[in-house]
Design a protein that fits this description.
Blueprint (H helix, E strand, L loop, with lengths): L8 H12 L23 H4 L9 H17 L6 H11 L2 H11 L11 H13 L6 H19 L15 H15 L1 H15 L18 H12 L2 H11 L27 H17 L4 H18 L7 H4 L2 H9 L2
């Protein structure tokens, strides 16, 4: 796969073929499922009639986001009819009702918190951009996850500063598109929380990466605040948060991660780190100028070149990496 930094129809088609190959592939599967009794020992498709594929629930959600985004940007690619057929089969009232019912189980209170919550709302924001019936059918599930943010965030006294699924910054960054489009109260809550959590952050040291991170905790926090703060307020904060960008500091943020085993489901997370850093650097560069902007853009290019050629390959990476490549290429 090319390391080009532009999303072409050819590259979009390749991402679509990858996603179509896994969103309805039930096995192998890693469930996030609490059994309250023997009656709960069911398979992925029985538990989640929409999001049963892609190795795990959240990867299936952002696999559908990949397909929806590509369909909007390139509606005439050869894979478009297959994407529409998959959506018609998946997004039915019965299937959505079953996904909502799963959330009502008391033992599902922490299901996919917060990573899957953010991606589900990111997907709904994308479905709302389409003329088809899918967004309307899917809306009850989006409503359920929006309510989970309303219930959880007032109790979240602290952020979760990680480079994996527990990251609060990534979840809020993903959900912001939906909140801005559909739910002003949710958007206001997000902005309130990131101010409380992060406005005092200064001179980030960026001790990263760890071996299985797929996010930069440092850059993801910055991208989250870029999405939620007014531009002037963000610029002042960012200048104090990462003051050495023009000089390439902290160096860890400018150096792509080395991936030593792409068949290892955790180590291959580092390809995702490279792609998500590229997404952040590209997005953040739009707020910068001069040497700082040039440094951010160059860092984005290096990180894309390191991992974009490896989106396809072993299933441990292939079931999710195209989504992160698409984030970067559409930043």
């Amino acid at each position: 796969m090319s390391s080009r930094s532009e999303l072409t129809a050819e590259l979009a088609s390749s991402f679509a073929r990858i996603a179509l190959g896994h969103v309805a592939r039930e096995y192998p599967n890693k469930l996030d499922h609490v059994l309250d009794g023997p009656q709960d020992a069911e398979g992925p498709r029985a538990l989640h009639p929409i999001y049963f594929g892609s190795f795990d629930w959240h990867s299936c959600v952002h696999g559908y986001w990949t397909l929806a985004t590509i369909l909007r940007l390139f509606p005439d690619i050869p894979e478009a009819p297959a994407i529409r057929a998959r959506f018609d089969a998946a997004f039915t009232p019965q299937n959505v009702a079953a996904e909502v019912a799963y959330l009502a189980r008391p033992s599902a209170r922490g299901f996919e918190r917060p990573y899957g919550w953010g991606w589900l709302l990111k997907l709904q924001a994308e479905l709302l951009a389409h003329d088809g019936p899918w967004a309307g059918v899917h809306q009850p599930l989006a409503d359920a996850f929006a309510q989970r943010f309303f219930d959880f965030l007032p109790k979240a006294a602290y952020p979760i500063r990680t480079g994996v699924h527990s990251s609060t910054s990534f979840a809020l960054a993903m959900a912001t598109d939906y909140a801005r489009r559909r739910d002003p109260a949710l958007l206001a809550l997000f902005a309130e929380k990131v101010r409380a959590w992060h406005l005092a952050d200064r001179d980030a040291q960026a001790w990263e990466p760890s071996l299985d991170e797929f996010l930069s905790a440092t850059l993801t926090t910055a991208e989250c605040l870029r999405r939620l703060l007014p531009p002037d307020e963000f610029s002042a904060w960012f200048a104090a948060y990462l003051p050495g960008i023009a000089d390439g500091r902290p160096a860890t943020l400018f150096t792509p991660a080395t991936v030593t085993d792409r068949t290892d489901g955790k180590i291959v997370h580092l390809d995702g780190l490279n792609l998500s850093r590229a997404w952040c650097w590209r997005s953040l560069a739009s707020t910068l100028s001069g040497p700082a902007r040039a440094a951010a853009e160059a860092a984005a290019d290096r990180h894309l070149a390191a991992s974009l050629p490896h989106v396809a390959g072993d299933y441990m990476g292939e079931h999710w990496l195209a989504s992160f490549a698409l984030l970067a290429l559409t930043a």
